Amino acid sequence: MASETTTGSDPITAAGDRGWLAAAAADPDFWSMRLDPADLAGCVPPDTPDSYRAPPSSVVPAPSGAAMQAILDRLERGPGFVVLRGFPVADALPDELDRRFWGFCRSLGAPLPQTRDGDRLVRVAHDPETAARQIGRWYGSRERLTFHTDRCDVLVLLVVRAAAAGGVTRIASSAAIVAELARERPDLLALLMQDFCWRVPERPVAGAPPFFRQPVVTFAEGRLSCCYNRFQIEAGHRYPGAGALTPQQAEALDRFEALAESERFAFSVRLEPGDVQLVNNHVVLHARTAYADGGDADARRELLRAWLSVAGSRPLAPERAATFGDCRPGRVRGFYPAAA
Predict the structure, then answer these.
(1) 21 lies in a domain?
(2) In this predicted model, what pLDDT tens digit does every residue of 141-152 receive, in sequence order?
(3) Structure pTM?
(4) CA–CA distance from 265 to each of 10, 107, 150, 277 (Å)?
(5) Domain containing 261: what range?
């Protein structure tokens, strides 16, 4: 059972949809920042590729410099997402670009495992063979990705090459959606604050439970944390012992997703090479339209992705332990379960 609280204590949630979408649409400075080369000067790349898989410490280091702190402030106390313009991608070979991006991510926080093999730096591109095996993890597909959150405090995506067509990023404020539900359908919000059964992604350990329980919406010390993935929830409720979704639960999920998809809450932006998208998963949902690649390998959409724990992160309710592990603020938390 989720902790009881009100939505008003969280400055992002309290703002609701008042001006969030209008500000994003009218003023790019609300959600975008231009990177100065000096901002990257202190981002030290790793000595060896093995650093990409080294286990992090338990406490997140402070960001390296005022520019990195300003980014984190936007994520935690501003709109909850930011697009950085001007990351140098055109002049670097793949290995060097990996190093630059990794150094940047390490300057912001602690990167986390994203795969069952423990990879903390992931190249996102369409691969038919890989996409066919990514049940519930379709980032390697060209198909539309619906609104969801990832298992981390902050998602970071660097655009190396954009799609030939489509591939538009979509952002929705889960904080605004929660505020709207509190006004129009508090009964549905109450359901979203109760446990749902979630499928464990690509279960790595034989005999481990195939699902876990957590709410979509929780609060800790008045701060919101929203976790949402409709596929994982529906799959989790199909396992023996989980129990089918009730009509009331399905209605709550339907309304939550309908608000996210509506023009009142969804904001779209086409990202270009050199753009870095950062998302606070606790207060923002993200999605992507379907896309088409160019004919040549060098013309195909490609991104680099990291999952981060960051200093100054919000406290989480105990119900988030199944997804994040340590719920204390400023700790390394959020993960993809490593293979035994």
Answers:
(1) yes
(2) 778 889 999 999
(3) 0.89
(4) 18, 31, 19, 18
(5) 7-151+171-324
